[in-house]
Design a protein that fits this description.
Elements lengths: L2 H17 L9 H4 L3 H29 L38 E12 L8 E3 L3 E17 L2 E11 L5 E5 L4 H4 L1 E22 L4 E22 L28 H8 L21 E2 L9 E14 L4 E10 L2 E11 L1
Antiparallel strand pairs: 1-3, 1-11, 2-5, 3-4, 4-6, 5-6, 6-7, 7-8, 7-9, 9-10, 10-11
Helix pairs in contact: 1-3
Length: about 325
């Protein structure tokens, strides 16, 4: 029951009793007439009741128009009763680099390998490199674009492959097979690469890229021509294919080194044309792609980068660099 209904039930009987009461037979006509002042009072009372009811209706309409009450405000209630729309759009996850400079430094360590199958297309006889390693330092510039960074690196790699027989693809094994010794072979190189990177999650991204550089070779390579009746079947076996003035070389040892140096082409072991199938002699090889032991560097990369902290990330990567495949990683520091 509303407030208005209650007031109507209360006021109507009162007014009816007051205005419609019949005069009794014992009372005079003058005494039953309602005084003027009383009528004015009744009119004022009814007017006040109407104002109260009107205000009650407005308050009820405002409550029904509030959010969650099932109603909506009409324009008559004014702008003060309007509700603002609720924002539902979600913001993209932060990259974590806000406020950081585009510069970073990284350290890396890698295992380097030259598997035998990677040389089969170029050589009929060869050894392999399984114990190579490299360490390096990188500078990363992330200001080229959202998904591109420039990486320059300084790298030292140990590339001392196993000693053994080598024969070029399609060459005659009888006079073109050489026993090759790798002596402390290593490189120091620099390169610049463009690396693309894309987030897989808020803490991991994939990285792909490539670059070019230049390197300097340290250490030496020595060789001697084999002449023990080598053929394609035994060219890869130094115990059957070897220089006759040295004898079989099933494994390279310090004693093997002394024997080879005793049949050197020159006292200082420098490169020489004296080494032939008729008179094998031990010599240093000086044939590099450029003079001064300078070599080109090709670098490729496929890897992942993991965020451990706002300023610290870790790399896990693989690819090809200089002469072989690598697998490694290391920390990156952002400032």
């Amino acid at each position: 029951m509303t407030r208005r209904t209650c007031l109507h039930r209360f006021s109507l009987p009162f007014v009816a009793h007051t205005l419609d009461q019949r005069p009794s037979q014992t009372v005079s006509q003058r005494s039953t007439r309602i005084p003027r002042q009383q009528r004015i009072g009744l009119a004022l009372l009814l007017g006040a009741l109407s104002v109260v009811l009107a205000q009650s209706d407005v308050a009820q309409a405002q409550m029904l128009s509030l959010p969650g009450r099932g109603g909506s405000l009409s324009g008559a209630l004014g702008p003060s009763a309007a509700t603002e729309p609720t924002a539902t759009a979600t913001t993209a996850p932060s990259s974590g680099d806000e406020g950081l400079s585009p510069h970073a430094l990284a350290l890396r360590a890698r295992w380097v390998t030259v598997p035998g199958w990677s040389l089969d297309a170029f050589l009929d006889a060869h050894t392999k490199l399984d114990g190579g390693w490299g360490v390096g330092m990188e500078y990363l510039y992330r200001g080229l674009g959202k998904h591109v960074e420039l990486v320059t690196s300084l790298d030292f790699s140990w590339l001392n492959a196993d000693s053994g027989n080598y024969l070029g693809k399609g060459n005659n094994p009888a006079d073109q097979t050489h026993y090759v010794v790798f002596d402390k072979l290593s490189t120091l190189s620099v390169d610049a690469s463009l690396i693309g990177h894309w987030n897989l999650t808020s803490w991991m991204e994939i990285r792909v890229g490539a670059g070019l550089g230049i390197g300097v070779v340290f250490g030496n390579i020595y060789q001697i021509t084999n002449n023990s009746g080598c053929n394609i079947a035994n060219a890869n076996d130094p115990s059957n294919c070897y220089p006759r003035n040295v004898g079989p070389l099933p494994a390279f040892t310090d004693n093997s080194r002394r024997i080879l140096e005793s049949v050197a082409c020159e006292p200082d072991l420098r490169d020489s044309t004296k080494d032939t199938v008729l008179s094998p002699c031990y010599r240093r090889v000086e044939t590099y792609p450029f003079s001064g032991r300078v070599v080109p560097v090709l670098n490729t990369l496929l890897g992942f980068r993991f965020r451990a902290h706002r300023n610290v990330l870790f790399h896990l990567e693989t690819g090809w660099r200089l002469v072989g495949f690598y697998l490694g990683g290391g920390p990156e520091f952002r400032f």
